[in-house]
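Operator note (shift B, R.M.): manual run for Flavin reductase domain-containing protein requested after the automated queue skipped it. Running by hand, logging everything below so the morning shift can see what happened. Input copied straight from the record, untouched. If output looks odd, do not overwrite the archive copy; leave it for review.
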Amino acid sequence: MIDTQDYKQVLGAFPTGVTVVTALDEEGCLVGFTASAFSAVSMDPPLVLICPSLNSDSYPVIKRNGRFAIHILGHDQQAIAYRFAGKGKNKGEGIDWRCSELQNALICGAAAYLECRVWEDYPGGDHAILVGEVEKLWCGGDQVDPLLYCRGKMDQLPENLRALARAS
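Run finished. Output pasted below as returned.
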């Protein structure tokens, strides 16, 4: 049997970017969750995956709408990451966002985003494995550094990596 705390500690040792997945509910309100489980799946067609908790308020909305947006958060968006990591409704209250042409909720200030439609939905224990087909994307280039997560802490890219990224 794997201890839950040990499992979280081991997974937390893997540095990642921080993403927030959003969708619009039936009333046009922003719903979403912070996702560490995000990955590219395929180049052709362009597919990505996210893994929402089966208990999240957002997962049923995404299933019904068949649409979602993934935001790679900017280094100054820690408060947004923590807000969407929590439970409950009204996570979007006070968040600067807009509705896209594809009817996705887009959080302003993100380093990048991908607008997706649900391509497939697989079972994954206490989470779903949602594969999304990317329909539209945007990247701020080196304008906004991404927010990073490792061992329970969030921060921006170290200066040496920022300099290397800008030089390329």
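Quick read of the result: The first helix runs from residue 4 to 12. Residues 121 and 130 are 5 Å apart (CA to CA).
Leaving this for review. - R.M.
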